[in-house]
Amino acid sequence: MVGGVKFSKKEVEFINRHEVCRFATCLNDRPHVVPVCYIFLNNNFYIATDYNTRKFKNVSRNRNVALVIDTYKPNKAVMVEGIADIIEYGQEFKEIYKLFHDRFEWVRREPWDEGEAPFIRVSVIKKVSWGL
User: Which of 117, 95, 122, 92 is nearest to 106 (CA)?
Assistant: First the structure.
């Protein structure tokens, strides 16, 4: 855990109940926010991406990121700030890929292997939640 950030039981339940978050990256003070599917494991968020995406290019140059998982009715959310790392190969990649494969039909429909598309690991340095 980067910075010792801990999530409450209610926060973890909320995070694990959802599949999509809004993921923010930034380059040269130009923010970029996109909806992405994620896996939450060991207090890290994992996001699948492709090498040609803006989020990958931004994270490659600026590792500071944020994400939010939210609902409007009722108004509940978990927002985190974190440090991003690219995961392309190895045991961590294989473990995360299996979780994505098991959870998301789109991964089973269009599978990939190490080095073909990376994951972004977000190590949490700060979190805020409301409504939980």
Answer: 117
* Cα–Cα separations (whole angstroms), residue 34 to 53, 55, 69, 76, 119: 11, 8, 12, 19, 15
- Going along the chain from its start, the domains and CATH numbers come out as 2-130 (2.30.110.10)
pLDDT in tens, 31-73: 999 999 999 999 999 999 999 999 999 999 999 999 999 999 9
Distance between CA 37 and CA 35 in Å, rounded?
A: 7
Beta-bridged to residue 35, according to DSSP, are 22
Q: What is the dihedral of CA 30, 35, 37, 42, to 10 degrees?
A: 50
**pTM (2 d.p.):** 0.93
CA–CA dist 60, 35 (Å, integer): 19
**Gap between the Cα atoms of 18 and 129, Å rounded:** 15
Q: What are phi and psi of 66, to 5 degrees?
A: -145, 160
Q: Any residues with CB less than 8 A from the CB of 100 and at least 6 apart, and which?
A: 37, 39, 46, 48, 107, 119
Q: How far is CA 33 from CA 7, 25, 73, 77, 92, in A?
A: 23, 7, 22, 16, 25
